[in-house]
Amino acid sequence: MKLIKTKDDYQAALKRMEILFDSPIGTPESDEADVLALLIDAYEQQYYPIEAPDPIEAIKIRMEEMQLKQVDLIDAIGGKSRVSEILNKKRKLSVDMIRNLASRLHLSANSLIGDYQLTR
């Protein structure tokens, strides 16, 4: 086993992981898969970083996960039209909305305070 330094190393690691993926826990193959996963993760974080979604996308993702509709956020945001304005990026989130949404959707306030562009 070696560090993943190139795309070829990365591709070889992914192929090896496919072979090892269903190895029984406690076997040498399972241990190899654990270490390989760490190496793959480190390479991906460096060369293929995934940016966090903007606050509105984070809300929409959580709504989908929790099977919520816009009407379910009225108590957190304050009115049907205001929910629509927020989710369509016509209006910015207020501090109170962020607090309410963090509690209602079980999201960190940090994921909701990021900047995003309003649509026209």
UniProtKB/TrEMBL annotation:
Superkingdom classification of source: Bacteria
GO BP annotation list: regulation of DNA-templated transcription
Residue ranges of domain HTH cro/C1-type in the record: 59-112
InterPro entries attached to this UniProt entry: Antitox_HigA, Cro/C1-type_HTH, Lambda_DNA-bd_dom_sf
UniProt GO MF annotations: core promoter sequence-specific DNA binding
Xref: Gene3D superfamilies: lambda repressor-like DNA-binding domains (1.10.260.40)
Alphabetized PROSITE patterns for the sequence: HTH_CROC1
Protein name: Transcriptional regulator
